[in-house]
Amino acid sequence: MSGFGVAGAPPAPTIKGWQHLRTGKVRDLYTNDSNEILLVASDRISAFDWVLPTTIPNKGAILTQLSLFWFELLEDIVPNHIISDDVPDQVADRAVIVKPLDMFEIECVARGYLTGSGLTEYKSNQAVCGNALPAGLVDGSELPNSIFTPATKAEIGDHDINIDFDQAAKIVGADDAAKLRDLTLSLYETAADFARSRGIILADTKFEFGRDAKGAITLGDEALTPDSSRFWELSTWQPGSAQGSFDKQFVRDFLTQSGWDKKSPPPELPAEIVEKTAARYEEAYFRITGSKF
User: Fold this and answer.
1) Which numeric CATH code is attached to 102-252+275-289?
2) What ranges do the domains of the chain cover?
3) What backbone torsions phi and psi does residue 121 show, to the nearest 5 degrees?
4) Which of 17, 45, 189, 192 to pair with 147, CA 20 to 30 A apart?
């Protein structure tokens, strides 16, 4: 069976001993005769549900190594899907071998700060995904408590849709929804405390869970990277204004100001935007892990 890909992504490379399964916005997935999965993070970058034609140097390796750091730090809370980081040389540092999981059909999001789609919903009903919040909060406000704000899993090119706990329970079952909520908040709060000790605010993050062959709930995909999280600079955090971030905000800002209509293929990124974005990913890795990439 041949694999399939996503519009805007180049063909996945051939890797000896591995059969291509599919290509996502950032990752290429392969399988072998042992039913293991080779998860390869490319240097592709996406924004506004498009894969951009320009890549960010070392991005895939940084995402992979940062995920490995967090998986190890958090493995006492929940098991993860990692089998090994001993991968073929052509994808060294940017790939891991993982267990196949039967994935839950919701995105598990935790928020400790108000921004993005949460802020939009808050302005309309003073709640986010069914979580009532105090009046007077602004963009970047810290929430009284971290909240679970699940979302549906969208097809590539579509938006995830925020849902409340009851809707999540209808999708995965009430017992599993409660377990996923509790795990999500425990992981988020542990990671947020650690990040804060490194001078970084973890404003929100997304986890994906599945069941392994033995039925155990297992953390999969990536964990706590700048692609799946909002990392802010603690020293300059100021509610009510734009926050200094460690993600692809330079890319989003350039595309917004470029006149691109977000309906046709996106433009190439200027060298300056590429360099600034790569530097922010590398800085996030250094600040969190304490090691230069």
Assistant:
1) 3.30.470.20
2) 19-98, 102-252+275-289
3) -70, -40
4) 45
Q: How far apart are CA 114 and CA 128, in angstroms?
A: 9
Residue type, 281: Y
CATH superfamily of 19-98: Phosphorylase Kinase; domain 1 (3.30.200.20)
Contact 165, 129 (CB under 8 A): yes
Orientation angle between helical segments 59-74 and 271-289, nearest 10 degrees: 20
User: How confident is the model at residue 6, as a pLDDT?
Assistant: 56
- Top pLDDT among 61 and 154 is at 61
The two three-digit tokens of residue 250, written as one number: 């330079």
Distance from the Cα of residue 247 to its chain's centroid: 11
The predicted structure's pLDDT at residue 158: 57
77: left (phi over 0), alpha (psi -120 to 50) or beta: alpha
pLDDT above 80: residue 236: yes
pTM above 0.85, yes or no: yes
